[in-house]
Amino acid sequence: MTDHSKGKKSLNIKKGDTVKVIAGKDKGAEGKVISVLRDSDRVIVEGVNLVKRHTKVLQQGGRAGNTGGIITQEAAIHVSNVMLVAGKDTTRVGFKRVGVEKRRPDGSTYSAERSVRVSRKTGEEI
């Protein structure tokens, strides 16, 4: 069974990665990924695709209500419009299986494999 049959899509970009925008009005901008929206193939990048939201004054229990007005916040951008930055340059993402030693609860160890992301340009682990 693949990830797609379960309804969950696998994206090469994760929260906390530094990405560069390669298309759209913010082309060339770099920022850190705040969140990944897997269901819609989108990411929210810090300082990129800023939009103004008009918020209503909510009076809920005195001071607890938020003040209304116009706030500027980041909107989602499609994952195809960003590229991962590894080191000082952008790169595509590849995957490699690496052998690791794992420990069981009883203290014994065994060897297993895990998948790691690698830079397609340099071959280094991301």
UniProtKB/TrEMBL annotation:
Stretches the record annotates as Disordered: 100-126
GO BP terms in the entry: translation
Keywords of this entry: Ribonucleoprotein, Ribosomal protein, RNA-binding, rRNA-binding
Gene Ontology cellular-component terms listed: ribonucleoprotein complex; ribosome
Pfam family, one: KOW
Domain (KOW): residue spans on this chain: 12-39
A GO molecular function held by the record: rRNA binding
Keyword check for Ribonucleoprotein: yes
InterPro entries, sorted: KOW, Rib_uL2_dom2, Ribosomal_uL24, Ribosomal_uL24_C, Ribosomal_uL24_CS, Ribosomal_uL24_KOW, Translation_prot_SH3-like_sf
Subunit note: Part of the 50S ribosomal subunit.
Entries under HAMAP family matching the protein: Ribosomal_uL24_B
Family: Belongs to the universal ribosomal protein uL24 family.
Function: One of the proteins that surrounds the polypeptide exit tunnel on the outside of the subunit. One of two assembly initiator proteins, it binds directly to the 5'-end of the 23S rRNA, where it nucleates assembly of the 50S subunit.
Name recorded for this polypeptide: Large ribosomal subunit protein uL24
Species this protein is from: uncultured Nocardioidaceae bacterium
Phylogenetic classification of the source organism: Bacteria, Bacillati, Actinomycetota, Actinomycetes, Propionibacteriales
